[in-house]
Amino acid sequence: MTDEPARWSQATVFPDMWVDPDDDPRDSSGPGPEGELATLDGYLADYRITLRMKCEGLDPEQLARRSVPPSTMSLLGLVRHLAEVERNWRNWISDDEPLPKLYGRRDADFDGAVAEQAAVDAAFADLAREQAATDAALAAHADLGERLGRDRITVRELLVHRVEEYARHCGHADLLRECIDGRVGQ
């Protein structure tokens, strides 16, 4: 006997997929997006959806379950972390005073990921709000070469960094979810 969950997928068409193509909310049918901005936005949107998919169907205890000591990483911690990161990206492109951290001190995004429904609801609300605010701030800058903020970062660099951040954390989410209930897939 082992305490490890059996590996499984909900997909029946392709066993290495998370869900069957007809049930996948990420649209991969038809031609790809036109242009660099649409491509970057499309990848970001897909990674955002992937993160939510990796969290679906789990209770607060499962979402807050830590990976392996001494790490404090959990799926809920990742959601909180990405909300914090979205907020901080607005600091990168602004000349104003920096926005305060959402969760306080360093690592509070992970440390405060507790197994309570209120914490789960708040984290997902924070993430949605911060994503929308960052998206709106960047929508005013269609020129990918435009330099913004005190550090003069280009819009392109920030967009690529956003895709990279979500992609990296979706990889973490893959492993965390597999450890929780054995579910695997892209």
Automatic annotation (TrEMBL):
InterPro entries: DinB/YfiT-like, MST-like. Pfam families: MST. Residues 1-37 are annotated as: Disordered. It comes from the Bacteria. This is DinB family protein.
